[in-house]
Design a protein that fits this description.
Length: 128
């Protein structure tokens, strides 16, 4: 299954801008139904979610809507952005092994952990 872009081509990598507390990063969307649905939602404008610390290796926030779940047991790495259950977005600055649906991966991790910092942060996802 490929990600549909505005041009209608499949399989082409789709990038999004991931901004954490005002610091922008570029991420590449996963090639699955959940990421495609997220891209469709972002085509209507940016999405901002509040994230809070969880377990010392991730930030978690409520999307406010559900996305299709295609969970697989994975070991995450810093820069992974995943869906937990069907309505929670998780941004990793550490590792964890659990059942998630991949959404995206930050392309360049320079400054990622520092931007996530400690405590609550504001995450904004947008199409470039």
């Amino acid at each position: 299954m490929g990600i549909e872009t505005d041009a209608g081509t499949k399989g082409e990598a789709v990038q999004i801008t991931v901004t954490v507390n005002g610091v922008p990063f570029v991420a590449t969307l996963a090639d699955n139904t959940a990421a495609s649905k997220l891209a469709e939602i972002l085509s209507g404008g940016p999405l901002t979610v509040g994230l809070s610390d969880y377990a010392g290796f991730e930030k978690v926030g409520d999307l406010g809507f559900s996305l299709p779940v295609e969970n697989e047991r994975i070991t995450t790495a810093p820069g992974d952005i995943v869906l937990y259950q069907d309505d929670q977005i998780v941004c990793f600055y550490g590792e964890n092994t659990w059942s998630y649906t991949r959404l995206a991966r930050v392309d360049d991790l320079a400054g990622w952990e520092e931007a996530l910092g400690s405590g609550a942060v504001e995450l904004t996802l947008a199409l470039p």
